[in-house]
Every structure is written in C-alpha cells, then in structure tokens.
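re: ur question from earlier - yeah i can do the single chain one, its not a big deal. heres the input i used so u can compare w yours
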Amino acid sequence: MAVLTPRARSISVRLSHGEFSALQRYCVSSGARSISDLARSAICGMLDRANEENALAETVQKQTALVKDLEGKIEQLTTEIGLLKAGKRPRSIRLSKGGRKTPDEIEAES
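and the output i got, formated as tokens:
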C-alpha cells in the first residue's frame, strides 16, 4: 500500500462557469473522487512525464556522444587501413583514452 505524504500546500485556479462545468463532468466520467484529486493526478502525471523526458534527453545526448566518438575511431581506422594498403606505415597508433605509441615503440616492446 502506498504511503501518503501529508499535503500542506495548496493552489488556486479560477475557471469560467463553462470550464468548471466541463471539469465536473470529466471528474464524474473518469471516476475521480473530487476535482482536487483529478487536478492533483493531472499535475503529478505532467511532472512525471517531464522527468521522463529529461532522462530521455540525457540518454540521447550520451548516445550521440558515443556515436560521434565511434565515427571518429572508424575514420581513423579507415585512414590507417588505407595507409597500410598503400604500403605506408601509419605515423602512430592510438591507444584507448588518448595514449599513443609509434610503430617503432610497438616493435621495441615485442
């Protein structure tokens, strides 16, 4: 069972007679206990969706950054493969996270 948080804050909204009548009808047809419960539910739903949209936007930004990083690595590998096919050695080979070793350093380690 959900734990209810005490509600100590309130808001006030002015509606036209027509808006209030429409809200009352919607309240009855939706099965809400009261207009206040209906309004609270709508506001909380809106806030939940906003939080989900923010989380989704962050995920999209992270995935976009990863894709750009992969594109850069693919471009680098394509260049190095082209050089190897042409009989030239690449100037350097990148290690993960930015470190570099020249082909001579790699051969010296072997």
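DSSP finds three helices and two strands in the chain. not sure if urs matches, ping me
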